[in-house]
Amino acid sequence: MSNFAFIFARGGSKGLPRKNVRRLAGKPLIQYSIETAQSVESIEKVFVSTEDSEIAEIARNAGAIVIDRPAELASDTSPEWLSWQHAIEWATERFGKFEQFISLPATSPLRSVGDVELAIEKQTSKESDICISITPASRSPFFNMVKVYDNGLVGLVNKPEKGVARRQDAPTVYDITTVVYVASTSFILNHSSIFEGKVTAVEVPKERAIDIDDIFDFKLAEIIVEEGISG
């Protein structure tokens, strides 16, 4: 089964300006995802989709194939799914058909090669359309997550039939992470969102599931890398 990996990285970022080229422990953030993809034996080619010249230069120097992303697919409001479809079509036109699409967002630099390999294995062995990555949630909609009603009162997002006195007694819930996505190319091309299909998942520990959105996330990632906390 042919596997192509893709990293989607825009030049613009509101939460942390230029985060994809910002140096994390001396290395551009995007380079972590590229190097991880290159270390996965079953991944045949590694692509970076971007509209930004600096990101493109870093990607080429790191050995990735650069996809010139159209400006209309690089705005704050453009769904990344459309960039996924564009990248698949671009790669297919130049390198032929491939079966598995793997997305490794630059904002999750602490993933391991094993996380990616497990997702690929799970997607190919299960009757699913896409494999996502998840990590245990710190808060629960059954215990300590609330919504505000029109009258100003609040209530649990999901109220269980019986009251839950401890978080440990609530149903286990997970956060979706940006560590890895693995899907069949046909599913991406013929649908418009993850949960339109059959979804499976791999669980990733919190220390490898950092999703860098702002300076606080970045500083936490720096500490994890420099202290060697991530396993």
From TrEMBL:
Top-level EC class: transferase
SUPFAM superfamilies reported for this sequence: Nucleotide-diphospho-sugar transferases
Signal peptide: none
Claim: Hydrolase is one of the keywords in the record: no
Membrane-spanning residues: none
Pfam families, A to Z: CTP_transf_3
InterPro entries in the record: CMP-NeuNAc_synthase, Cytidylyl_trans, Nucleotide-diphossugar_trans
EC number: 2.7.7.-
PANTHER family, per the entry: HAD SUPERFAMILY MEMBERS CMAS AND KDSC, N-ACYLNEURAMINATE CYTIDYLYLTRANSFERASE-RELATED
Protein name (database record): Acylneuraminate cytidylyltransferase family protein
Native species: Pseudoalteromonas obscura
